[in-house]
C-alpha cells in the first residue's frame, strides 16, 4: 500500500456475511435531479460500494416501488430539513431504502461520504438515522505553495499544483485531492502561499487557477488566493499601493472583476500584510482596517470574502511578541467591513507544540474571527516525528475565554455562537488549516500524518468530535479494522503530542531554534531581531527559567479575562503545561509533582525521549494487521524520531545545566555527549 488512497481506500471487506448484509441495502442508487455535484456523489458511492462490497451498483432515475437501495434527495424541506443548514445532511431509512438528503446538492454529497464512512468503519445501516450540519461555514486548507513548485514549510515533496502544465494538463491527482477534502467537508482551498507572489494575479496564472477551480467545483470546494498587497505597484505599474488611493482601489476592483471572469464562484482573498516583511497598508500610514476594507469594497459585487490575517509582530527589543496581535487588532473591533474575517493563529506566538489560546479570541466580539491551525509539522518534527494534532486543536478550541462568562470557549467564538455573528448577513465563520500535503505519493510524507489532515477536516465540520473518535475512524478507514491493532495505533496517536512536547518543549517552553525550526538551538542568541532568537523565549539565567508574563513582567496575562488570568498568574498553582509561558521559575522551586523545576524538566526530557520506544513497541504490536510497506515506512520514521528525540533532549539538558548547575537526577544518566558535541552536530545540520 503506497498510501495514495488516504482514507478512501475502499478495499473489499474481509467478512462475506458482513459484505452481503451491506449489499442487501445498497442494491441501487436512485438520484433525482442532476448536477455535477450529484454526479460526483453518485460515482463516489459506486466506487466505494463496489470496492468495499463487490457488486456494481446501478443508478436509477427514481426508486419507484423498489426497495433495498439508496435514494439521493436534494431540496428537502419541512421536518426533514429540521436541524439542517445549507450544507447539512440527513440519512434515514424510509420505505425500505436509505435516503440521503440535503437542502443542497453539496449537503447530499457530504451525506454520501458519511454513508460510506459508516460502511468503512463497520457501522450498521439497518436503522440508520444521522443528522449533521457543519458548525463552521468556511472550512479550508491554506497551501503555502509557491509558483516555482516549492512549498514553504512543506515536508512531503513539492507543490501539488503543476503550474507549468496548467491549465492544459489536469493531473488526476487534483480530483483525488478534491475527493479527500469533500469527504471531510472541507469546502475551500487557498492555493498559494501567504507570502504571496504577485504572479498568481496575472491573467496567465488566473487561467491555471480557474482550471483547478473547475476540478474542485463538483466537490463543493471554492478556490481562494493569497494576495500580495503591493500588487498595484508591482503588477499594475502604479506609483503606490496605498489602499485609500482611488487608482489603487480601482486596480483592485478591476482585478477582482477579472478574477471572477475566470472563476465566477471565486472564494476570496487571504492576506498577510505588514507581517514578517510583507507589504501592507502600514507602508502608507494606513491601518489593517483600511487595507481589508479596500479589498472588501472590491469584492462587494461578488460573494467572496476577505480573510485578513492577524499574525503580526514588530521588531521591538523591549516588547513581548505575545502581546502584539492583540495590541494591533483589538482597537479595530467593529470597524471591519462585514465581508472581512480576521484569521487568528491558535496561539499568541506561532504554532508552537503547546501554546495557550490567543487572547484575541473573545476580545473582538464585533469581528468574525477565524482560527488558523498548522497541519504541516513545521514545529512538530517535520515528516519524521509522530504527532497526532487533534488533541492540540481540541485543547485550544475547548479553552474557555470567559468572554461572556463561563463556557465562552474558543470554539464558540469561532463558530459564531458566542458573539451572535453566526449566519449574520454576509459574515462568515472560518477554520483554516495550513496544509501538510505535497507531491509525495502518500501526500503527507509520514503516513500517519494523514491523520492530521483528516482530523482537521472533521473538527472543522464538528468541533465536538473527540480526538479518540476521530482517530478510530481514521485508523479503521486507513490502516486496519482489527480491534487490537486499532487500539494500539489509537494509543500511539493519542499520546504522541504529549511525548513530543516532553522532549521538545516541556512545561511551557517554546521555540528552541532559529529559522529551520528543527535542529535544537536553545543557545541561539544572534539574529536581526531579538524575537527571532531562542533565548528571547526561554530566558534561562542563573536563577531560573521561563518568561515572566505576570504583572511583574510583560503583563501579557492582562490581555485575558480575570478568570483566565487567575488560572495562570500564580506560580504556585499555574498548570504545569503553561508554567514557563507565564513565569520565570527558580531552578530549585518545588512543583506540584514534588520535584524541583530542574528535576521535573529532566524527568520530562528523559521520559519524553524514552516514550518513543513505547511508540515503537505499540507499532510493533499492530504489525500483523498493517500493510507491510506502510508498516516498514513507519518503523523507519520512529527509529529516526527516537534518535532525534535524544538529540533534542541532550541539547536542552546540557545547555540548561550550564545555568542550573545541577546534576541530572537519578535514575537518568548524564548524556554521553558534551554540549560542544551537540552544538557541533547542530552546526553541521544547519550547513547548506
Ligand atoms: C511562520 C513560518 C513562516 C510563515 C509564517 C506565517 O515560519 O514560514 O510565513 O509562519 O504564518 O511560522 O505567515
Explain how this protein is built.
The strands form three sheets. Strands 7-8-9-10-11-12-13-14 form an eight-stranded parallel barrel. The radius of gyration is 26 Å and the shape is globular. It is built from 20 helices and 16 strands. Strand 4 and strand 5 form a beta hairpin. The longest helix is centred in the last third of the chain and has 33 residues. With 688 residues, it is α/β, with parallel strands linked by helices. Helix 7 packs across helix 8 and helix 18 runs antiparallel to helix 19. The protein folds into three domains: 117 residues, Chitobiase, domain 2, CATH 3.30.379.10; 341 residues, Glycosidases (TIM Barrel, Alpha-Beta Barrel), CATH 3.20.20.80; 151 residues, Alpha-d-glucuronidase, C-terminal Domain (Alpha-Beta Complex), CATH 3.90.1330. Bound molecules: beta-D-glucopyranuronic acid (BDP). Beta-D-glucopyranuronic acid binds next to loops. This is Xylan alpha-1,2-glucuronidase.
Topology summary:
Blueprint: H1 16-24, E1 29-31, H2 36-53, E2 59-60, E3 70-74, E4 89-94, E5 97-102, H3 105-120, E6 129-132, E7 138-142, H4 172-184, E8 188-190, H5 203-216, E9 222-227, H6 231-234, H7 246-262, E10 268-271, H8 288-299, E11 305-309, H9 324-329, E12 340-345, E13 369-374, H10 390-397, H11 410-414, E14 430-434, H12 450-461, H13 467-478, H14 483-504, H15 535-538, E15 544-545, H16 562-568, H17 579-582, E16 585-586, H18 597-622, H19 628-660, H20 675-686
Parallel strand pairs: 1-2, 1-3, 3-5, 7-8, 7-14, 8-9, 9-10, 10-11, 11-12, 12-13, 13-14
Antiparallel strand pairs: 4-5, 4-6, 15-16
Helix pairs in contact: 2-3, 7-8, 12-13, 13-14, 14-18, 18-19
The structure holds beta-D-glucopyranuronic acid.
Amino acid at each position: 500500500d503506497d498510501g495514495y488512497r488516504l482514507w478512501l481506500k475502499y478495499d473489499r471487506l474481509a467478512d462475506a456475511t458482513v459484505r452481503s448484509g451491506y449489499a442487501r441495502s445498497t442494491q441501487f442508487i436512485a438520484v433525482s435531479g442532476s448536477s455535477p455535484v450529484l454526479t460526483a456523489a453518485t460515482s463516489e458511492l459506486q466506487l466505494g460500494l463496489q470496492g468495499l462490497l463487490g457488486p456494481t451498483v446501478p443508478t436509477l432515475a427514481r426508486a419507484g416501488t423498489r426497495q433495498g437501495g439508496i435514494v439521493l434527495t436534494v431540496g428537502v424541506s419541512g421536518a426533514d430539513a429540521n436541524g439542517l443548514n445549507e450544507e447539512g445532511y440527513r440519512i434515514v431509512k424510509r420505505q425500505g431504502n436509505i435516503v440521503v438528503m440535503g437542502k443542497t446538492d453539496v449537503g447530499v454529497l457530504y451525506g454520501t461520504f458519511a454513508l460510506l464512512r459508516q460502511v468503512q468503519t463497520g457501522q450498521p445501516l439497518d436503522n440508520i438515522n444521522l443528522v449533521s450540519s457543519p458548525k463552521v461555514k468556511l472550512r479550508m486548507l491554506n497551501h503555502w505553495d509557491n509558483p516555482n513548485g516549492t512549498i514553504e514549510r512543506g515536508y512531503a515533496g513539492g507543490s501539488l499544483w503543476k503550474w507549468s502544465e496548467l491549465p492544459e494538463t489536469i493531473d488526476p491527482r487534483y480530483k483525488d485531492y478534491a475527493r479527500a477534502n469533500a469527504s471531510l467537508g472541507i469546502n475551500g482551498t487557498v492555493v498559494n502561499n501567504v507570502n504571496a507572489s504577485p504572479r498568481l494575479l496575472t491573467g496567465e496564472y488566473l487561467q491555471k487557477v480557474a482550471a483547478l477551480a473547475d476540478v474542485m467545483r463538483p466537490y463543493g470546494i471554492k478556490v481562494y488566493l493569497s494576495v500580495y498587497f503591493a500588487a498595484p505597484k508591482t503588477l499594475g505599474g502604479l506609483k503606490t499601493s496605498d489602499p485609500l488611493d482611488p487608482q489603487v482601489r480601482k486596480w483592485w476592483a478591476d482585478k477582482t472583476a477579472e478574477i471572477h471572469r475566470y472563476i465566477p464562484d471565486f472564494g476570496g482573498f487571504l492576506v498577510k500584510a505588514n507581517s514578517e516583511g510583507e507589504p501592507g497598508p502600514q507602508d502608507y500610514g494606513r491601518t489593517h482596517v483600511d487595507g481589508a476594507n479596500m479589498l472588501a469594497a472590491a469584492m462587494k459585487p461578488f460573494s467572496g470574502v476577505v480573510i485578513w490575517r492577524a499574525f503580526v509582530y514588530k521588531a521591538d527589543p523591549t516588547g513581548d511578541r505575545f502581546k502584539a496581535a492583540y495590541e494591533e487588532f483589538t482597537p479595530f473591533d467593529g470597524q471591519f467591513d462585514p465581508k472581512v474575517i480576521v484569521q487568528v493563529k491558535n496561539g499568541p506566538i506561532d504554532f508552537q507544540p503547546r501554546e495557550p489560546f490567543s487572547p484575541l479570541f473573545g476580545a473582538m466580539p464585533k469581528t468574525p474571527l477565524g482560527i488558523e491551525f498548522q497541519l504541516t509539522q513545521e514545529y512538530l518534527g517535520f515528516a519524521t516525528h509522530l504527532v497526532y494534532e487533534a488533541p492540540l486543536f481540541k485543547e485550544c478550541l475547548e479553552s474557555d475565554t470567559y468572554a461572556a462568562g463561563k463556557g465562552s470557549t474558543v470554539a464558540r467564538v469561532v463558530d459564531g455562537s458566542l458573539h451572535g455573528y453566526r449566519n449574520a448577513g454576509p459574515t462568515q465563520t472560518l477554520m483554516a488549516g495550513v496544509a501538510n500535503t505535497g507531491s509525495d505519493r502518500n501526500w503527507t510524507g509520514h503516513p500517519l500524518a494523514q491523520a492530521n489532515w483528516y482530523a482537521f477536516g472533521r473538527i472543522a465540520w464538528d468541533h465536538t468530535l473527540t480526538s479518540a473518535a476521530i482517530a478510530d475512524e481514521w485508523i479503521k478507514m486507513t490502516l486496519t479494522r482489527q480491534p487490537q491493532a486499532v487500539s494500539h495505533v489509537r494509543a500511539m496517536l493519542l499520546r504522541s503530542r504529549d511525548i513530543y512536547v516532553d522532549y521538545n518543549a516541556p512545561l511551557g517552553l517554546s521555540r528552541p531554534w532559529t529559522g529551520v525550526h528543527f535542529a535544537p538551538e536553545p543557545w541561539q542568541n544572534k539574529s536581526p531581531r531579538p524575537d527571532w532568537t531562542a533565548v528571547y523565549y526561554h530566558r534561562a539565567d542563573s536563577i531560573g527559567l521561563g518568561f515572566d508574563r505576570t504583572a511583574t513582567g510583560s503583563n501579557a496575562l492582562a490581555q485575558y479575562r480575570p478568570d483566565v488570568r487567575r488560572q495562570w498568574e500564580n506560580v504556585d498553582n499555574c498548570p504545569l503545561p503553561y508554567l514557563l509561558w507565564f513565569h520565570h521559575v527558580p531552578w530549585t522551586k518545588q512543583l506540584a509533582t514534588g520535584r524541583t523545576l530542574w528535576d521535573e524538566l529532566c524527568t520530562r526530557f528523559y521520559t519524553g525521549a524514552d516514550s518513543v520506544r513505547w511508540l515503537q513497541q505499540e507499532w510493533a504490536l499492530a504489525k500483523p494487521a498493517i500493510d507491510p510497506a506502510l508498516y516498514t515506512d513507519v518503523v523507519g520514521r520512529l527509529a529516526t524520531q527516537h534518535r532525534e528525540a535524544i538529540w533534542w533532549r541532550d541539547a536542552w539538558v546540557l545547555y540548561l545545566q550550564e545555568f542550573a548547575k545541577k546534576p541530572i537526577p537519578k535514575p537518568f544518566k548524564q548524556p554521553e555527549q558534551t554540549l560542544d558535541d551537540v552544538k557541533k552536530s547542530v552546526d553541521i545540520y544547519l550547513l547548506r
